[in-house]
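Z., the sequence and structure:
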Amino acid sequence: MMAFFSCGKENAKEAVKKKEIVTVITVNYPLYFFADRIGGDLISLQYIIPADVDPAYWNPNEEELSLYQSADIILANGANYAKWMENVSLPSSRIVNTSASFKDELLPLKNVASHNHGPEGEHQHKGVAFTTWLDFDLAIEQAEVIKDILIKKLPKEKLVLDENFENLREDLERLGKKMIDVTLQLKDINVLGSHPVYQYLSKSYNLNIRSVHFEPDVFPSNEQWRELETIVDRSKENLMLWEGHPNKKTENRFHELNIDILVFNPCENMPAKGDFLNVMKDNIDRIAK
């Protein structure tokens, strides 16, 4: 009787034994979205970056840093993104550079200038362009790296992780095909960027975007307006892509200059509503309209 009871107790322990959970943390929202789509309930996924900052220039406090240090997987964007990582102690064996496989395709930055925006203050865009996910083919490569590391950590879940990745790949491929179709409408338009974040979008979809350093909530200085004059093509229609809608005073000035405004949100941070796919679909729909 005692032996039977003991055996049953051990079986009960096995039955309630929790599955191993892999903790994952990311340096920006696109990587969070990819990891969530692929890992789902199989992982414990964290995203701690405040909504009002640019993740590329955010700096974690001591408590936030400890969450990165304790995670099983730290998903980095690479391409000189999240510069804070260079100045702190992180377990290198847990850092996964999701753009390492296409490092030869990273685009160098040109005409670097210092500027201010958001709580992160003055900074420079220098080195290489880092909004890699705006090329949806590169986004797929980054997602595949995430899938591979999750399979390595959770080999018994390979079939589920593979299936989830393939579903995500199909969604990203559809975005890429739609982007190709709508950008054909822009072939006779001079496309500008309000900020140097559209390099991969420009290269991948043949837009030849030239950028300035305008902030949506700040009226540009005289020097910035002069900079704009150097890239406007008066023989064509001009269209400027913005990360967010500019203030009314800036918008009025653009109307006076006959430059159209179009919001194309790079979606570096978590959107207030919807998800990465929704934001990108809205971006593409605005071009189509």
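The chain has two domains: 15-176, 177-288. Residues 264 and 283 are 5 Å apart (CA to CA).

Let me know what you think.
H.
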